[in-house]
Design a protein that fits this description.
This protein is α+β, with helices and mostly antiparallel strands. The chain has a five-stranded mixed beta sheet. Helix 1 packs parallel to helix 6, helix 5 packs across helix 6 and helix 5 packs across helix 8.
Length: 424
Protein backbone atom coordinates (compact mmCIF):
# COMPACT_ATOMS: atom_id res chain seq x y z
CA UNK A 1 0.00 0.00 0.00
CA UNK A 2 1.35 3.44 -0.94
CA UNK A 3 1.80 5.13 2.44
CA UNK A 4 2.80 8.65 3.46
CA UNK A 5 4.27 8.94 6.96
CA UNK A 6 4.61 12.37 8.60
CA UNK A 7 7.23 12.69 11.35
CA UNK A 8 6.17 15.52 13.68
CA UNK A 9 8.90 15.39 16.34
CA UNK A 10 9.36 19.15 15.84
CA UNK A 11 5.67 19.87 15.51
CA UNK A 12 3.87 20.89 12.35
CA UNK A 13 3.21 24.18 10.59
CA UNK A 14 1.58 24.73 7.22
CA UNK A 15 4.72 25.91 5.44
CA UNK A 16 6.81 23.03 6.82
CA UNK A 17 4.22 20.49 5.70
CA UNK A 18 4.01 22.03 2.24
CA UNK A 19 7.81 22.07 1.93
CA UNK A 20 8.17 18.42 2.98
CA UNK A 21 5.46 17.33 0.53
CA UNK A 22 7.04 19.51 -2.18
CA UNK A 23 10.23 17.45 -1.97
CA UNK A 24 8.18 14.32 -2.74
CA UNK A 25 6.45 15.82 -5.79
CA UNK A 26 7.42 14.58 -9.25
CA UNK A 27 6.78 17.82 -11.12
CA UNK A 28 7.83 20.67 -8.87
CA UNK A 29 7.71 23.30 -11.63
CA UNK A 30 4.06 22.58 -12.40
CA UNK A 31 3.16 22.80 -8.72
CA UNK A 32 4.79 26.22 -8.30
CA UNK A 33 3.08 27.48 -11.44
CA UNK A 34 -0.32 26.26 -10.23
CA UNK A 35 -0.07 27.52 -6.66
CA UNK A 36 1.04 30.94 -7.87
CA UNK A 37 -2.14 31.11 -9.95
CA UNK A 38 -4.48 30.88 -6.93
CA UNK A 39 -7.15 33.56 -6.62
CA UNK A 40 -5.03 35.51 -4.12
CA UNK A 41 -3.97 38.98 -5.21
CA UNK A 42 -0.20 39.53 -5.05
CA UNK A 43 0.62 35.93 -4.07
CA UNK A 44 4.15 34.72 -4.70
CA UNK A 45 5.39 31.29 -3.58
CA UNK A 46 9.10 30.45 -3.87
CA UNK A 47 11.27 27.62 -2.58
CA UNK A 48 14.84 27.57 -1.39
CA UNK A 49 17.24 24.86 -0.33
CA UNK A 50 18.54 25.31 3.22
CA UNK A 51 20.79 23.37 5.60
CA UNK A 52 20.08 23.14 9.34
CA UNK A 53 22.19 21.11 11.77
CA UNK A 54 23.89 19.55 8.77
CA UNK A 55 20.61 18.36 7.20
CA UNK A 56 19.48 19.67 3.81
CA UNK A 57 15.84 20.46 3.20
CA UNK A 58 13.41 22.87 1.56
CA UNK A 59 11.99 26.09 2.94
CA UNK A 60 8.97 27.66 1.25
CA UNK A 61 8.60 31.42 1.24
CA UNK A 62 5.13 32.90 0.77
CA UNK A 63 4.73 36.62 0.15
CA UNK A 64 1.68 38.80 -0.49
CA UNK A 65 2.36 41.98 -2.46
CA UNK A 66 6.09 41.38 -1.83
CA UNK A 67 5.58 41.27 1.95
CA UNK A 68 6.82 37.99 3.37
CA UNK A 69 4.93 36.89 6.45
CA UNK A 70 7.67 34.75 7.93
CA UNK A 71 10.45 35.57 10.34
CA UNK A 72 12.01 33.89 13.33
CA UNK A 73 10.50 34.59 16.73
CA UNK A 74 12.16 34.12 20.11
CA UNK A 75 10.43 33.11 23.31
CA UNK A 76 7.92 35.64 24.60
CA UNK A 77 8.53 35.14 28.30
CA UNK A 78 12.29 35.53 28.05
CA UNK A 79 12.30 38.30 25.46
CA UNK A 80 8.96 40.07 25.80
CA UNK A 81 10.62 43.48 25.78
CA UNK A 82 11.87 42.82 22.27
CA UNK A 83 8.62 41.63 20.82
CA UNK A 84 5.83 44.02 21.72
CA UNK A 85 4.68 43.94 18.08
CA UNK A 86 5.05 40.23 17.36
CA UNK A 87 2.04 38.07 16.62
CA UNK A 88 3.08 34.47 16.19
CA UNK A 89 -0.08 32.44 16.35
CA UNK A 90 0.32 31.23 12.80
CA UNK A 91 2.99 30.15 12.40
CA UNK A 92 5.63 29.61 15.06
CA UNK A 93 7.76 30.96 12.24
CA UNK A 94 5.69 34.08 11.59
CA UNK A 95 5.60 37.54 13.04
CA UNK A 96 3.72 40.47 11.62
CA UNK A 97 4.93 44.04 11.78
CA UNK A 98 2.06 45.08 9.55
CA UNK A 99 -1.58 45.10 10.52
CA UNK A 100 -3.61 41.93 11.21
CA UNK A 101 -5.62 40.19 8.57
CA UNK A 102 -9.18 39.69 9.80
CA UNK A 103 -10.86 37.24 7.47
CA UNK A 104 -14.07 35.28 7.84
CA UNK A 105 -14.73 31.79 6.58
CA UNK A 106 -17.01 33.00 3.79
CA UNK A 107 -14.21 35.06 2.22
CA UNK A 108 -11.80 32.13 2.35
CA UNK A 109 -14.41 29.81 0.84
CA UNK A 110 -14.82 32.30 -2.02
CA UNK A 111 -11.06 32.45 -2.66
CA UNK A 112 -10.79 28.67 -2.73
CA UNK A 113 -13.87 28.31 -4.96
CA UNK A 114 -12.44 30.75 -7.54
CA UNK A 115 -8.99 29.15 -7.66
CA UNK A 116 -8.01 26.93 -10.65
CA UNK A 117 -7.68 23.73 -8.64
CA UNK A 118 -9.53 20.41 -8.65
CA UNK A 119 -12.77 19.93 -6.76
CA UNK A 120 -11.04 17.38 -4.53
CA UNK A 121 -8.44 19.95 -3.49
CA UNK A 122 -11.18 22.53 -2.88
CA UNK A 123 -13.16 20.12 -0.71
CA UNK A 124 -10.13 19.14 1.37
CA UNK A 125 -9.03 22.76 1.84
CA UNK A 126 -12.52 23.86 2.88
CA UNK A 127 -12.85 20.98 5.34
CA UNK A 128 -9.51 21.93 6.88
CA UNK A 129 -10.60 25.54 7.28
CA UNK A 130 -13.86 24.41 8.83
CA UNK A 131 -11.84 22.46 11.41
CA UNK A 132 -9.98 25.66 12.24
CA UNK A 133 -13.16 27.75 12.35
CA UNK A 134 -14.86 25.25 14.68
CA UNK A 135 -11.77 25.26 16.93
CA UNK A 136 -11.71 29.06 17.05
CA UNK A 137 -15.42 29.04 17.78
CA UNK A 138 -14.97 26.65 20.70
CA UNK A 139 -11.93 28.52 22.02
CA UNK A 140 -13.46 32.00 21.96
CA UNK A 141 -17.11 31.24 22.64
CA UNK A 142 -18.54 32.59 19.37
CA UNK A 143 -20.46 30.91 16.58
CA UNK A 144 -18.58 29.86 13.45
CA UNK A 145 -20.37 32.62 11.53
CA UNK A 146 -19.11 35.25 14.00
CA UNK A 147 -15.52 34.03 13.99
CA UNK A 148 -12.91 36.30 12.41
CA UNK A 149 -9.84 34.27 11.49
CA UNK A 150 -6.79 36.35 12.30
CA UNK A 151 -3.37 34.84 11.57
CA UNK A 152 -4.84 31.60 10.17
CA UNK A 153 -7.00 33.75 7.90
CA UNK A 154 -4.01 35.49 6.36
CA UNK A 155 -3.43 34.76 2.70
CA UNK A 156 -0.14 32.95 3.27
CA UNK A 157 -1.97 30.46 5.50
CA UNK A 158 -4.53 29.94 2.72
CA UNK A 159 -1.64 29.19 0.36
CA UNK A 160 -0.14 26.73 2.87
CA UNK A 161 -3.40 24.80 3.21
CA UNK A 162 -4.29 24.73 -0.48
CA UNK A 163 -0.68 23.92 -1.39
CA UNK A 164 -0.58 20.95 1.00
CA UNK A 165 -3.88 19.66 -0.42
CA UNK A 166 -2.59 20.03 -4.00
CA UNK A 167 0.60 18.12 -3.21
CA UNK A 168 -1.23 15.30 -1.43
CA UNK A 169 -3.51 14.95 -4.44
CA UNK A 170 -0.45 14.81 -6.70
CA UNK A 171 1.44 12.31 -4.52
CA UNK A 172 -1.77 10.27 -4.15
CA UNK A 173 -0.96 8.11 -1.09
CA UNK A 174 -3.43 5.38 -0.28
CA UNK A 175 -2.89 5.98 3.42
CA UNK A 176 -1.48 8.81 5.54
CA UNK A 177 -0.05 8.09 8.98
CA UNK A 178 1.39 10.68 11.39
CA UNK A 179 3.60 10.38 14.44
CA UNK A 180 2.56 11.73 17.85
CA UNK A 181 2.94 15.52 17.64
CA UNK A 182 5.37 17.63 19.67
CA UNK A 183 3.38 20.80 20.34
CA UNK A 184 6.13 22.72 22.15
CA UNK A 185 5.69 24.70 25.36
CA UNK A 186 5.67 28.22 26.81
CA UNK A 187 3.53 31.10 25.59
CA UNK A 188 2.82 32.74 22.26
CA UNK A 189 1.54 36.20 21.34
CA UNK A 190 -1.33 36.36 18.87
CA UNK A 191 -4.15 38.68 17.84
CA UNK A 192 -6.09 37.82 21.03
CA UNK A 193 -3.13 38.38 23.37
CA UNK A 194 -0.57 36.08 25.00
CA UNK A 195 -1.71 32.46 25.08
CA UNK A 196 -0.26 29.19 26.38
CA UNK A 197 1.26 26.61 24.03
CA UNK A 198 -0.44 24.74 22.51
CA UNK A 199 -2.86 27.54 21.68
CA UNK A 200 -6.54 26.90 22.52
CA UNK A 201 -7.41 26.37 18.84
CA UNK A 202 -4.51 23.95 18.28
CA UNK A 203 -5.39 22.01 21.43
CA UNK A 204 -9.04 21.77 20.32
CA UNK A 205 -8.12 20.53 16.83
CA UNK A 206 -5.77 17.87 18.20
CA UNK A 207 -8.28 16.36 20.63
CA UNK A 208 -8.07 12.59 20.30
CA UNK A 209 -4.62 12.70 18.68
CA UNK A 210 -1.47 11.83 20.70
CA UNK A 211 0.46 15.00 21.54
CA UNK A 212 3.35 15.81 23.90
CA UNK A 213 5.69 18.64 24.90
CA UNK A 214 9.43 18.07 24.86
CA UNK A 215 12.79 19.81 24.43
CA UNK A 216 11.75 23.18 22.98
CA UNK A 217 10.13 26.15 24.72
CA UNK A 218 8.30 27.59 21.73
CA UNK A 219 5.16 27.01 19.68
CA UNK A 220 5.90 24.03 17.45
CA UNK A 221 2.45 23.04 16.22
CA UNK A 222 0.16 25.71 14.77
CA UNK A 223 -3.58 25.58 14.07
CA UNK A 224 -2.89 25.28 10.33
CA UNK A 225 -0.45 22.41 10.75
CA UNK A 226 -2.70 20.69 13.28
CA UNK A 227 -5.77 20.93 11.02
CA UNK A 228 -3.98 19.64 7.91
CA UNK A 229 -2.64 16.60 9.76
CA UNK A 230 -5.88 15.94 11.64
CA UNK A 231 -7.83 16.02 8.35
CA UNK A 232 -5.56 13.70 6.39
CA UNK A 233 -3.98 11.32 8.92
CA UNK A 234 -5.79 8.00 9.20
CA UNK A 235 -4.01 7.18 12.43
CA UNK A 236 -1.22 8.39 14.74
CA UNK A 237 1.63 6.05 15.64
CA UNK A 238 5.35 5.46 15.32
CA UNK A 239 6.58 4.78 11.81
CA UNK A 240 5.02 1.57 10.46
CA UNK A 241 7.10 -1.09 8.77
CA UNK A 242 7.53 0.28 5.26
CA UNK A 243 9.85 0.27 2.27
CA UNK A 244 10.73 3.96 1.95
CA UNK A 245 11.12 5.28 -1.59
CA UNK A 246 11.28 9.07 -1.04
CA UNK A 247 11.98 11.39 1.88
CA UNK A 248 10.95 15.04 2.05
CA UNK A 249 12.32 17.49 4.60
CA UNK A 250 10.38 20.71 5.22
CA UNK A 251 12.37 23.34 7.12
CA UNK A 252 11.03 25.90 9.57
CA UNK A 253 12.51 29.38 9.89
CA UNK A 254 13.61 29.24 13.52
CA UNK A 255 16.86 27.65 14.64
CA UNK A 256 17.07 25.33 17.64
CA UNK A 257 19.70 22.97 19.02
CA UNK A 258 17.90 20.21 17.12
CA UNK A 259 16.98 20.51 13.45
CA UNK A 260 13.70 22.36 12.99
CA UNK A 261 12.07 20.27 10.30
CA UNK A 262 9.15 18.03 9.46
CA UNK A 263 9.99 14.89 7.50
CA UNK A 264 7.66 13.09 5.12
CA UNK A 265 8.38 9.47 4.14
CA UNK A 266 6.73 7.97 1.07
CA UNK A 267 6.87 4.21 0.60
CA UNK A 268 5.08 0.90 0.53
CA UNK A 269 3.49 -0.94 3.42
CA UNK A 270 1.81 -4.31 3.22
CA UNK A 271 -1.52 -5.43 4.60
CA UNK A 272 -0.54 -8.70 6.18
CA UNK A 273 -3.33 -11.25 5.95
CA UNK A 274 -3.03 -11.89 9.69
CA UNK A 275 -2.98 -8.27 10.91
CA UNK A 276 -5.72 -5.71 11.40
CA UNK A 277 -5.18 -2.29 9.84
CA UNK A 278 -7.86 -0.14 11.42
CA UNK A 279 -9.47 0.57 14.77
CA UNK A 280 -12.96 1.81 15.63
CA UNK A 281 -14.97 2.26 18.81
CA UNK A 282 -18.39 0.71 19.44
CA UNK A 283 -20.63 2.64 21.83
CA UNK A 284 -23.79 0.99 23.15
CA UNK A 285 -26.66 1.62 25.54
CA UNK A 286 -29.87 -0.21 26.43
CA UNK A 287 -33.12 1.74 26.12
CA UNK A 288 -36.41 0.54 27.59
CA UNK A 289 -38.24 3.82 28.18
CA UNK A 290 -38.02 5.68 24.87
CA UNK A 291 -40.58 5.80 22.07
CA UNK A 292 -39.73 4.60 18.59
CA UNK A 293 -39.83 8.19 17.36
CA UNK A 294 -37.32 9.32 19.98
CA UNK A 295 -34.95 6.44 19.25
CA UNK A 296 -35.24 7.17 15.54
CA UNK A 297 -34.37 10.81 16.16
CA UNK A 298 -31.23 9.80 18.07
CA UNK A 299 -30.16 7.47 15.24
CA UNK A 300 -30.60 10.21 12.63
CA UNK A 301 -28.69 12.70 14.77
CA UNK A 302 -25.72 10.39 15.29
CA UNK A 303 -25.52 9.61 11.57
CA UNK A 304 -25.80 13.29 10.69
CA UNK A 305 -22.90 14.11 13.01
CA UNK A 306 -20.65 11.66 11.16
CA UNK A 307 -20.88 8.32 12.93
CA UNK A 308 -19.52 5.46 10.82
CA UNK A 309 -22.69 3.46 11.45
CA UNK A 310 -25.67 3.46 13.82
CA UNK A 311 -28.21 0.70 14.30
CA UNK A 312 -30.86 -0.53 16.73
CA UNK A 313 -31.38 -4.13 17.83
CA UNK A 314 -34.32 -5.58 19.79
CA UNK A 315 -33.38 -6.96 23.23
CA UNK A 316 -35.09 -8.20 26.40
CA UNK A 317 -34.16 -6.42 29.63
CA UNK A 318 -34.84 -6.97 33.32
CA UNK A 319 -38.44 -7.11 34.50
CA UNK A 320 -39.23 -8.74 31.13
CA UNK A 321 -39.19 -5.41 29.35
CA UNK A 322 -38.78 -5.41 25.57
CA UNK A 323 -36.16 -2.80 24.76
CA UNK A 324 -33.74 -1.47 22.15
CA UNK A 325 -29.95 -1.76 22.00
CA UNK A 326 -28.56 1.41 20.39
CA UNK A 327 -25.13 0.91 18.81
CA UNK A 328 -22.95 3.71 17.44
CA UNK A 329 -19.68 2.95 15.64
CA UNK A 330 -17.19 5.82 15.38
CA UNK A 331 -13.50 6.59 15.00
CA UNK A 332 -11.38 6.58 18.17
CA UNK A 333 -10.83 10.34 18.17
CA UNK A 334 -14.60 10.96 18.16
CA UNK A 335 -15.42 8.64 21.08
CA UNK A 336 -16.11 11.32 23.70
CA UNK A 337 -18.13 13.40 21.24
CA UNK A 338 -20.52 10.59 20.30
CA UNK A 339 -20.77 9.25 23.86
CA UNK A 340 -21.87 12.73 24.89
CA UNK A 341 -24.51 12.83 22.16
CA UNK A 342 -25.89 9.46 23.26
CA UNK A 343 -26.09 10.58 26.88
CA UNK A 344 -27.80 13.81 25.89
CA UNK A 345 -30.29 12.53 23.34
CA UNK A 346 -31.36 9.26 24.97
CA UNK A 347 -32.68 8.34 28.41
CA UNK A 348 -29.68 6.15 29.27
CA UNK A 349 -27.55 6.82 32.36
CA UNK A 350 -24.48 5.15 30.88
CA UNK A 351 -22.79 4.30 27.59
CA UNK A 352 -20.56 1.23 27.15
CA UNK A 353 -17.37 1.50 25.10
CA UNK A 354 -15.64 -1.30 23.19
CA UNK A 355 -12.49 -0.72 21.14
CA UNK A 356 -12.48 -2.91 18.03
CA UNK A 357 -9.55 -3.73 15.76
CA UNK A 358 -10.81 -4.47 12.28
CA UNK A 359 -9.72 -5.66 8.87
CA UNK A 360 -10.61 -2.85 6.47
CA UNK A 361 -10.24 -2.63 2.72
CA UNK A 362 -8.79 0.63 1.44
CA UNK A 363 -11.70 2.47 -0.18
CA UNK A 364 -11.74 4.79 -3.16
CA UNK A 365 -14.60 6.52 -4.96
CA UNK A 366 -14.50 6.95 -8.74
CA UNK A 367 -17.05 8.54 -11.07
CA UNK A 368 -18.05 6.78 -14.29
CA UNK A 369 -20.05 8.16 -17.19
CA UNK A 370 -22.80 5.70 -18.15
CA UNK A 371 -25.68 5.87 -20.65
CA UNK A 372 -27.87 6.83 -17.68
CA UNK A 373 -25.58 9.54 -16.36
CA UNK A 374 -22.65 9.83 -13.95
CA UNK A 375 -22.49 7.10 -11.32
CA UNK A 376 -20.12 6.83 -8.37
CA UNK A 377 -18.42 3.48 -7.84
CA UNK A 378 -16.94 2.49 -4.49
CA UNK A 379 -13.88 0.22 -4.72
CA UNK A 380 -12.27 -1.64 -1.83
CA UNK A 381 -8.85 -3.30 -1.99
CA UNK A 382 -6.55 -5.14 0.40
CA UNK A 383 -5.81 -8.56 1.94
CA UNK A 384 -5.64 -10.03 -1.59
CA UNK A 385 -9.22 -8.90 -2.18
CA UNK A 386 -10.62 -6.31 -4.58
CA UNK A 387 -14.31 -5.53 -4.95
CA UNK A 388 -16.53 -2.69 -6.09
CA UNK A 389 -20.16 -1.63 -5.96
CA UNK A 390 -22.34 1.13 -7.31
CA UNK A 391 -23.40 3.90 -4.92
CA UNK A 392 -26.99 3.44 -3.77
CA UNK A 393 -27.86 7.16 -3.85
CA UNK A 394 -26.89 7.45 -7.52
CA UNK A 395 -28.87 4.36 -8.51
CA UNK A 396 -31.91 5.63 -6.60
CA UNK A 397 -31.65 9.04 -8.27
CA UNK A 398 -31.58 7.49 -11.75
CA UNK A 399 -34.51 5.22 -10.86
CA UNK A 400 -36.61 8.19 -9.76
CA UNK A 401 -35.73 10.27 -12.82
CA UNK A 402 -36.68 7.40 -15.12
CA UNK A 403 -39.69 6.25 -13.06
CA UNK A 404 -38.17 2.77 -13.09
CA UNK A 405 -37.73 0.05 -10.45
CA UNK A 406 -34.52 0.26 -8.43
CA UNK A 407 -33.57 -3.35 -9.26
CA UNK A 408 -33.94 -2.72 -12.99
CA UNK A 409 -31.64 0.33 -12.94
CA UNK A 410 -29.15 -1.45 -10.69
CA UNK A 411 -28.98 -4.43 -13.06
CA UNK A 412 -28.53 -2.19 -16.12
CA UNK A 413 -25.75 -0.16 -14.53
CA UNK A 414 -24.05 -3.27 -13.16
CA UNK A 415 -23.97 -4.83 -16.63
CA UNK A 416 -22.49 -1.61 -18.02
CA UNK A 417 -19.80 -1.63 -15.31
CA UNK A 418 -18.94 -5.27 -16.04
CA UNK A 419 -18.65 -4.60 -19.77
CA UNK A 420 -16.32 -1.65 -19.13
CA UNK A 421 -14.12 -3.82 -16.90
CA UNK A 422 -13.90 -6.49 -19.60
CA UNK A 423 -12.72 -3.89 -22.13
CA UNK A 424 -9.96 -2.86 -19.75
Amino acid sequence: MKTLYLECTMGAAGDMLMAALFELANNKTDFLKQINSLAISGLKVNTESVVKCGIKGTHIRVSINDIEESAAKTDILKNSHKHSHEHSYEHIHHNHSHKHNHTNLEKIENIIARSPISQKVKDNALNIYRLIAEAESAAHGHSVEQIHLHEVGSMDAVADIVGACMLIESIAPQEIVASPINVGSGFVRCAHGVMPVPSPATAHILQGAPIYSRSVESELCTPTGAAIIKHFAKRFEQMPEMRVQKIGCGMGTKNFEVVNCLRAFLGETENSVDKTNDRVVQLQCNLDDMTGEAVGFAVELLLHEGALDVFVSPIQMKKNRPASLLTCICSEDKTHFFAGLMLRHTTTFGVRKTVCDRYALKQEISIKQTPLGKIRIKTGEGYNVKKSKLEYDDIAKVARLNNAPFAEINDALSRNKTNEEKKI
